[in-house]
DNA sequence: CATAAAAAGCAACAATGTTGCAAAATAGAT
DNA sequence: ATCTATTTTGCAACATTGTTGCTTTTTATG
């Protein structure tokens, strides 16, 4: 685990710092996606709010994590499993939000479908967010 | 126009008030979707922030408008064109966010595709958000 | 016009996000 | 191991966004 964390940071030429390590660890050990708030709560040690924002921004830019749009004013973040890189994300999977446990999951195996847009629109990227009840909550 | 507004409010058994009328008017006369902030800015008369929040909530509940998820912490709202009703929205169209003009559009004719989820997930509803450059900005 | 019910406004507050700058930590070279 | 340039953090101050309870105003209706 500590290995993985170091690797990810080195691979992206980011210096190893306590907050980056901790936040990465949270992502690695967490099933679902995390919001900024989740991270502030889950990180036992208290990092400054600003540090968390900046870390999330850096990670997103580097292609370590990606954002997931929501309708509740709380963007979620999740690890990129494909090999996304500086500036270019290319995970094209569907996300799932559980209405019961409120968790957000990456459905890594469900690829986003092709969508045919009307003439004149230049498409760069599609997000699909499914809502319902997750596996855990349903049984 | 004033006609339409009155109709919509009456049809949903909402009383006619200045803020509701103004906000509806904004939606009717605007091409794209509006965020809470857009509304505060565009409404010439100043309505209390709280009133705007409550109005948007009421409209959403009644099925007059629907929300559009985003990754920028600013949910957008747009008129429901299908006949959504109290509690149940059923517009299933794709949304488009222009990276240039930042506007969000309902692509009313582009229906959300069916998505096959892994075993165990109960699906209730799918959101598709496409990003790119809109017609206006592209020409 | 009177009245009950609904909505708006206000105040106070909580949560979220941003910026500039000084202090601390890190990486890399001696 | 120590020094040093560079990067990152924490802090302070602030801006924006969202929420709640309560009072006043407005609306619908007889
Ligand atoms: Mn994902
Ligand atoms: Mn729409
Ligand atoms: Zn769940
Ligand atoms: Zn545009």
Rg of chain A (CA only): 16 Å
Helical run tally of chain A? 5
Into which percentage range does the β-strand content of chain A fall? 25-35%
Assembly status:
homodimer
N-end to C-end Cα span of chain A: 31 Å
Beta strands of chain A, count: 6
Topology of chain A as a string of helices (H) and strands (E): HHEHHEEEEEH
Structural class of chain A: alpha+beta
Give the ligands present. manganese (II) ion, zinc ion
Question: What is the total number of structural domains of chain A?
Answer: 1
Major sheet of chain A, described briefly?
A: 3 strands, antiparallel
Q: Which of globular, elongated, flat, extended, rod-shaped describes the shape of chain A? A: globular
What percent of the residues of chain A sit in helical stretches (DSSP H or I)?
25-40%
**CATH 4th-level superfamily of chain A:** Winged helix-like DNA-binding domain superfamily/Winged helix DNA-binding domain
Description:
The structure is a homodimer of 139-residue chains. Chain A has 139 residues and is of the alpha+beta class. Chain A has five helices and six strands; from the N terminus they run H-H-E-H-H-E-E-E-E-E-H. Chain A has helices spanning 2-11, 18-28, 36-42, 49-62, 135-138, and strands at 34-35, 65-68, 76-79, 93-98, 104-111, 122-133. In chain A, helix 1 (2-11) crosses helix 2 (18-28). The two termini of chain A are 31 Å apart. The relative contact order of chain A is 0.14. The structure holds a DNA duplex (30 and 30 nucleotides).
């Amino acid at each position: 685990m500590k290995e993985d964390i170091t690797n990810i940071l080195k691979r992206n030429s980011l210096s190893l710092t306590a907050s980056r390590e901790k936040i990465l660890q949270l992502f690695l050990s967490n099933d679902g996606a995390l919001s900024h708030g989740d991270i502030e709560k889950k990180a036992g040690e208290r990092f400054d709010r600003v540090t968390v924002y900046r870390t999330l921004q850096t990670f997103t830019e580097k292609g370590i994590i990606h954002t997931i749009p929501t309708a509740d004013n709380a963007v979620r973040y999740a690890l990129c499993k494909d090999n996304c890189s500086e500036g270019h994300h290319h995970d094209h999977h569907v996300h799932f939000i559980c209405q019961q446990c409120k968790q957000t999951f990456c459905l890594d195996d469900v690829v986003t479908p092709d969508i045919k847009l009307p003439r004149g629109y230049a498409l760069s990227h599609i997000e699909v967010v499914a809502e319902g009840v997750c596996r855990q909550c349903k049984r």
